[in-house]
């Protein structure tokens, strides 16, 4: 940018930095709006507790196989690809199902992670989805649980799960035995973690023979034993659930269940123990979980022992479907439950007070379907348990209803429970009690079941009471943000205003905000509500104050009228493109089709079509390369997300990294020597040599580590140290061995090689090849855009002087309709950087195998950091290219970002309205993920632009004739253009001749 442009920018009333800061705060705050709108916390306090009058069992044993899929436990021959695999993987659990227990599927909710799953099983409540972001070790909110209502709970297992149920419980009621976190080593046999639990259980009962106090505790009523078996989860992550290791871990769990029952029976010598076996979540075929895929949400449930019915014949219509046909259990009744229902079942079995936050429904409440309780208990007992279930749900409703009615203006109660002078819910409870007193057990259960459904409906009504208001605020906020962003493009305050907005219009947003704040204060609304209103009030106030007068001037109205047809077409095309981007979140093939569309998008502009007509064989090379790279980009989204580790592709990627560096280095160094002299060239040559060497070393180390883990030889300490060294040192090399002067191409090559080790050591197969193709396509995009806009830079470089180009940037950024196309292409590359090798449908598309080459011990924070580093690497290259594009096209910094900011929130609003809190867990999980991704798009875009401008400062722009010479492979032609004058368009660089 010229000095004049700099001075003009300094006097401007618009600071891009201020816009980015406000936008950052806005999008961070409004990410939370999806939780306030759709997933408010279910936890309230002040409820009474209820329990059945008698206990059916003296004690309960809960065994959770962490990460166990239902199909792989129940299926006959579930591992057909494993040689000599048995037909029945878990014979002991199978015998329980067939001879003395009840079974079915426990359907979990998203997120399918260990903590929310255990909260549902033991607390009977579905934890607020947003609470997952508040820490994994302990619960962010105190809630009641079955453990807290027991006389004593003896828990054994992982340190990640056990402490969360001791917190908030009566002191000394929940006892824990957990191994060290370092024992969760993904390179070791995780079965040992499960046998550790069994050893501690055996030791507990062995010690009880010599410890009278412990023996007395064990013989109390309402005792609970909790065995958390983490081995399956660790094994599934390490080897995937269809592996021999996972199969053997299931067999080990089966043996542990058998031995645990033997220990219990030997110690007590009675038949007063109930057993429940289940899982917190399942696992995807690639060894991950977290999303709403059925493989993650369907977990086994088996109950047996005191108070539990035996197997029943199947019903008509059948309780089975295509999913359970391979089980070979079609002759037995399958009873599915929601995961929170398990807490209600356990409370009923031991006669404990039900967790006060539980929303679980006892499976036996429905009189038309068999449940899990033994019919021998008597219909009266089951009917009374159903009444307790209804009272517990309605008690939560009562507390929430009273809180809402006291603090909400113009409160409208839930008519199904509150109509009449005496609340309908009270009348219905009295009706159920009268039916029980009249020995009408079936009718009492049916009435309780109806009341429970209405109570759950009332809870949902109260939790979503403010949804319409919040949706309205969020809509006005995002539209206001897009209008506010547009002010930084049209910059009305930098131009003489002709009309003034009426004062009443100016103060309307402020008055609206004040009224909303007053209502929120009276209603004691969450503090976040105040921010939700503040942002749209500010955005709309600024647009009404600045944008409306500017757009109302006669000159602008005439201009808009003349270009109405063209602008309308551009608007329709832009909205269609944004809809296409949104569709790509669920259909990855869209990104392949998008690559073809992007490759031809420049034909939409007149300058592009003119360039094609006047194109020579020399000037066609960048366009042909652009098409070739676009074709390669088509392939990667078509590669299945469920990939296996492939050392061949990893090694191929490493070698191509080295080959690209070997080819590009002489071209880049020749340009550096021409611009800055031989000394600078020699310094860069040393850096490039070290980077190329590191690429070869990290490729060899990665292949060795991968094969060592595949062959189960573990990861030696020396290999781990070497891997860390080869990842960290080359990554920081571009920043520690700095040279004072760079060309654009020299910096591009430097950062490209800096990220090469990341995409080698953290790859599972084709990620390295994708990064190479992606980076090359970005570079070719810039080349093509500049040649089409300034064809004279290629045909007659000497005729393009600084004066002509500088004149285009004086006075700040001037909006061009063609910039919309480039902004959309930029947004496409933002998405392609993720979708090219991943799947936004869930976090399950991230593989953990590459992380084990660096961190074999379970460490969520460190593993996530490495995965994020790999995820962000393509975006750093995109940030550099974006800065290069702004400079090459003589646009001020952040120009294309400003255009994209005015469009990207269209997708955010679309996904906000598509968020679901009902339906299948797959639909719920995907809808949340989509909103997160679209909201974070601004943070990615803004951060990338700022980072790119910083990384590319003080550079002399690469001349396009140099690039074409490189494309032709004629390195010798570099000297032929050395007499041309360098063009510095970065706005902060130093003229090359002066540097010489």
From TrEMBL:
GO-annotated biological processes: cell wall organization; GPI anchor biosynthetic process
E.C. code: 2.-.-.-
Principal location class: endoplasmic reticulum
Compartment annotation: Endoplasmic reticulum membrane
Superkingdom of origin organism: Eukaryota
Membrane-protein topology: Multi-pass membrane protein
Molecular function via GO: mannose-ethanolamine phosphotransferase activity
Gene3D superfamilies tied to this protein: Alkaline Phosphatase, subunit A
Signal peptide: none
Domain GPI ethanolamine phosphate transferase 1 C-terminal: 458-920
Keywords of this entry: Cell wall biogenesis/degradation, Endoplasmic reticulum, Glycoprotein, GPI-anchor biosynthesis, Membrane, Transferase, Transmembrane, Transmembrane helix
Residue ranges of the TM segments: 20-39, 469-490, 505-522, 568-599, 620-641, 647-672, 693-711, 717-736, 748-765, 823-847, 867-885, 894-915, 927-952
GO CC terms in record: endoplasmic reticulum membrane
CDD domains xref list: GPI_EPT_1 (cd16020)
Pathway annotation: Glycolipid biosynthesis; glycosylphosphatidylinositol-anchor biosynthesis
Family recorded in the similarity comment: Belongs to the PIGG/PIGN/PIGO family. PIGN subfamily.
Function recorded in the entry: Ethanolamine phosphate transferase involved in glycosylphosphatidylinositol-anchor biosynthesis. Transfers ethanolamine phosphate to the first alpha-1,4-linked mannose of the glycosylphosphatidylinositol precursor of GPI-anchor.
Protein name listed in UniProt: GPI ethanolamine phosphate transferase 1
Source organism of the structure: Leucocoprinus leucothites
